[in-house]
Amino acid sequence: MTTAGAGASRPRASGLRQTVTEPAIRLRGVSRRFGALQALRDVSLDVLPGERRAVLGPNGAGKTTLFNTICGDFPPTAGSIVLFGADITRLRPHQRTRLGIGRTYQTSLLFNGLTVLENLFVAVRGSRPNRFSFRRPGRGDAATAKSRELAERMRLSHLLDAQVLNLSHGQRRQLEIGMAMAGDPRVLMLDEPAAGLSPGDRPELLRLLHELPRTLTLILIEHDMDIALPAADIVTVMKDGEVVVEAPPDRIEDDPVVQSIYLGGGH
Ligand SMILES: Nc1ncnc2c1ncn2[C@@H]1O[C@H](COP(=O)(O)OP(=O)(O)O)[C@@H](O)[C@H]1O
Ligand SMILES: [Mg+2]
Predict the structure, then answer these.
(1) Which residue has the CA at smallest separation from atom 24 of ligand 1?
(2) Domains of the chain: which residue ranges?
(3) CA 73 to ligand 1 center in whole angstroms
(4) 116-125 vs 169-180: helix crossing angle, rounded to 10
(5) Which residue has the higher pLDDT, 106 or 140?
(6) Of 143, 150, 153, 255, whose CB is crowded by the most CB atoms within 10 A?
(7) Bridge partners of 221?
(8) Which CATH superfamily is domain 21-100+190-267 in?
(9) pLDDT for residue 137
(10) Secondary structure of the chain: what % helix, strand, coil (to 5)?
(11) Is the CB of 178 under 6 A from ligand 1?
(12) pTM, full prediction
């Protein structure tokens, strides 16, 4: 192998040491077919540790499918996915979760009849609530303490005992992110966290994203450039299952390809 391995430093001729950073996520030639439909086509992507990456693109571009191949819900039909140097292409979703991938879904998976604390507790314990065996949060247990900590980080401490069905849309989104954080992911993938939020809820979401630990690698699918651009270090734009642009946020709005997608009726 000629490339340097995990976080390795190697001496250069000058005597300086060059640090070779291994990507948090590395995709090589990832494709996904659904029957005759090619939802992802030969996607290669490196996301570095601690990077905030936004994924933009019109409906049907393959953004959610990209997440599904990374988290294992719909593994790639070709190509490879490497997480911090470990090939995870063939692993089951729960194995990928254990290795540090957390995500939210475009459609909410919250338990409406449970409280905020109970939802977080379920996520922390990594189990589903069962009518007969659901252990509820108790005082002094570690999972409850962790659930409270997550609520605080997501600015939901004042709503611990509120039933999820009584939360605002924005609060539900915050809770979903908290639940995705429950397994202490190294890579957090958020699928359109701002979708359906009122303009008033958006700054709160942005603040929350900015407050996430900088060590966390964040991949964010987002339609709205007003959220995506300020939240991102690098933006990937997809169309028809392919990556068509990869650029820093300040170069996105003026990019001719992006303009043709967003202004040309492709959105
Ligand atoms: N589970 C699936 N079965 C069949 N087709 C799918 C499935 N998931 C996604 N697709 C198709 O793949 C394409 C990309 O979808 P998706 O990744 O959801 O796009 P985006 O998230 O960018 O809107 C679409 O044509 C969609 O209909
Ligand atoms: Mg989608």
Answers:
(1) 60
(2) 21-100+190-267, 110-184
(3) 13
(4) 20
(5) 106
(6) 150
(7) 55, 191
(8) P-loop containing nucleotide triphosphate hydrolases (3.40.50.300)
(9) 78
(10) 30, 25, 45
(11) no
(12) 0.88
